[in-house]
Amino acid sequence: MTWWRAARFGMFIHWGLYAIPAGQWRGQSIPGIGEWIMLRARIPVREYEQLAKQFNPTRFDADAWARLAKQAGQKYLTITSKHHDGFCMFDSKVTDYDIVDATPFARDPMKDLAAACQRHGIRLCFYYSQTQDWHHPNGDGNDWDYDETRKDFDCYVDEYVKAQVREILSSYGPIGMIWFDTPKRMTLQQSRSLVDLVHDIQPDCLVNGRIGNGLGDYAESRDNAIPGERLGEDWEVPATINDTWGFKTDDHNWKPVDELIRKLVDCASKGGNYLLNVGPTADGVIPEPSAERLRAMGKWLERNGESIYGTHAGPVQGLDWCRSTARGGTIYLHVFDWPSWGSLEVPLAVAKARLLADGSELRVTDSAISAPASAPDPIDTVIALDLRV
Length: 389
Ligand code: JFZ
Description:
By secondary structure, the protein is an alpha/beta fold. 26% of the residues lie in helices and 20% in strands.
């Protein structure tokens, strides 16, 4: 868990056939998250499958994606190898329903991504939908093509899921983590056998909490739900920049940069990781509104990353106007609301205070820190504190 705890910030990528309809089906806008369009519109397998013939992401540039993650200050990248629609974005030998065999693209983008992540020092992780598979006759969730009561789910897990988990762990070098999702009908025995399989192949590979049945190396929060207080366990929140994971043409509800930075800080202050999603288009491009926000976050982290990476939850908790993180003897006070009255009152025995961004010292009297009239950084001014011993 060492790398994962130090990382604090990762890139989530939801990319698959659903990026083609991008929220529209037969001239209708389908409400909800883009990657669920097959279920929401009850699209028959035979019809949805046809999308593969159009999938040709000629503008896909693995290096650009890894570079963007790097510029954003993200330390790991988790990409959908297979989402609930069942389409495999990697070269699988146990099905032809994959990007190499079924699309005109006919290449494995995960190979390029693995190499690009290596080059840029980003840990590659795979999302894998182990329970829901709306394409496989024995997978969970598709009751419009198949009779749910006649499915042999155990067989699907033993013969298909395990084979594919083996593939994604054997073909792309070291994998940081497998991000399982929506365990639903997984039994404890099934969850356990998948964890064991992962560790048999790559002992250092982590498994997230959505493997189900209380297993996994850390807890996964509900989507977009940052806990109200610090937790005594390792946790991560998967989050969207707009309101969808998979690309949708009509979702323009992009969160502003200041909100995204504060959410990252909020997570770090409660001891958790922020896994922030991008949904590339069908031609392989990360939407510019996402890219520009990520680059702005990276700019902020260039100046203030010391207060995020490798830190744990700080001692000041439960105040609206600030957050805190800590590492070694240093406490990082993150000021969201700058005082107009010239002083910051902190419930700590402060000895020394300096602005992290430029190193300048702030005067300290009786634990109150003198504050310049206006916020040095209106998004989050970080002050590094030494305490009296
Ligand atoms: C799941 C997926 O169904 C979704 O498509 C996306 O991949 C997301 C990251 O994960 O959705 C969930 C799973 C769990 C919760 C909410 C949405 N939850 O626990 O609240």
